[in-house]
Amino acid sequence: MATYEKYLKEKTHPEEIVDLAREILELRKMLWLGHGHKGIYGDDGEMQCGECMTEYGFYDWRREPIEEIKSKIEATNLKRLLERAKGSNKNG
Ligand SMILES: [Zn+2]
User: Fold this and answer.
1) Where are the domains of the chain?
2) Which protein residues have a CB closer than 5 Å to ligand 1 (ion)?
3) Is the pTM of this model over 0.85?
4) In this structure, is the dihedral angle defined by the CA atoms of residues 46, 51, 53 and 56, taken in order, positive or negative?
5) How far is CA 71 from the centre of its chain?
6) Which segments within 14-88 are labelled E, that is strand?
7) Is the C-alpha dihedral spanning 19, 24, 25, 27 positive or negative?
């Protein structure tokens, strides 16, 4: 069993579960704030992105499954790399 899974399974008290939920929310917030788009907005504690909505039909960084978030970050980074490569071809 992976170390992190073992660590999680040891958390049985409600206070520990709440701490884990807070930690997950904070990590989601860090990903949302740093994913590189300019359309982020967070009224009422939400974590949304207008640019993700336009690009992928996805916007809810607070509730979407983590696999969905991971795939959108990868897509955003790939798109950015391709745009840079196109830019360097024009100049070079
Ligand atoms: Zn976005």
Assistant:
1) 11-91
2) 37, 49, 51-52
3) no
4) negative
5) 9
6) 40-41, 48-49
7) positive
**Count helices and strands in the chain by DSSP H and E runs:** 4, 2
CA atoms of 19 and 8, how far apart (whole Å): 11
Take residue 24 and report the two structure tokens written for it.
């997950």
Distance 25 CA to ligand 1 centre (A): 17
Q: How far is the CA of 7 from the centre of ligand 1 (A)?
A: 31
Ligand 1 centroid distance, CA of 89 (Å): 26
Burial of 27-55, coded b for 16+ CB within 10 Å and e otherwise, reads ebeebbeebebeebeeeeeebbbeebeeb
Segment 8-26, tens digit of pLDDT:
889 889 999 999 999 999 9
Ligand 1 mean position, distance from CA 13 (Å): 35
